[in-house]
Amino acid sequence: METTLIILKPDAVQRGLMGRIITRFEDKGLQIVGGKLMQISQELAAQHYKDHASKPFYAGLVRFMTSSPVFVLAIRGNSAISVCRNMMGATFGSKAASGTIRGDFGVSNSYNLVHGSDSPEAAAREISLFFKSGEVLEFKRAGECWVYDLSGGKAE
Ligand code: IDP
Ligand code: MG
Within a domain: residue 54? Predict the structure, then answer.
C-alpha cells in the first residue's frame, strides 16, 4: 500500500471542482486518509517546489499556489502514487488525455488543477510538509473486501 499527497490547486477550489475530482479518486477505490482546506504560505510553497526553483515558471507557480486556498488530500491504495498520476494526466491541460482530470477539466498549462507526488520519496516528504502527525488516519473501510481480493492475506 502507498499513500500519496494530492493537492487540489487554487483553480480547482475556485471553480467548484473539488467534489468532482475527489469523487474520481473515491470511485477508483482509493481511500481518502487525510484532507483539509488550507492557504499555502510562501515558505511552504518554496519547500514543496524546491526542485523547481531554477525553472522559468517557478515564480508564477508559487504565486498561483499561494493565491487562494487549496484542498490537500492524503490518498492510500495499491500503487496509489502511479494510479493517481495516471488519473491526473499529463502536466499541460492542453496535452492531457481525455478521461484524465487535467484532460477533462482544463486547457491551461500552469493552472492544471491537481498536484500528485511522483515517487515514494516525494510522497513521504510532501505528506510530512502538509500534514501534522495524527492528521493522516489509519482506518478500516467496510467495503475493503470488495475493493481488493484479500483472500490471500494481502490486498491484491
Ligand atoms: P507535474 O505537476 O505534472 O508533476 P511538474 O513538471 O512537476 O509537473 O511542474 C509542477 C507544476 O508547475 C505543474 O503542475 C504546473 O502547474 C507548473 N508548470 C510546469 N511546467 C510549466 C510550464 O512550462 N509553464 C507553466 N507552468 C508549468
Ligand atoms: Mg511534479
Answer: yes
* Nearest ligand to the C-alpha atom of residue 55: 1
pTM, 2 dp: 0.98
Q: Which tens digit of pLDDT belongs to each residue from 76-117?
A: 999 999 999 999 999 999 999 999 999 999 999 999 999 999
Q: State phi, psi for 8 to the nearest 5 degrees.
A: -85, 110
- For residue 79, give the amino acid letter: S
Which mutation among 8, 91, 117, 126 tests ligand 1's pocket best, with the greatest number of atoms within 8 A of CB? 91
- Please name which of 51, 66, 57 lies closest in space to residue 121, comparing C-alpha atoms: 51
Q: Provide the number of structural domains found in the chain.
A: 1
Beta-carbon-side half-sphere exposure of residue 44 (alpha carbons within 13 Å):
16
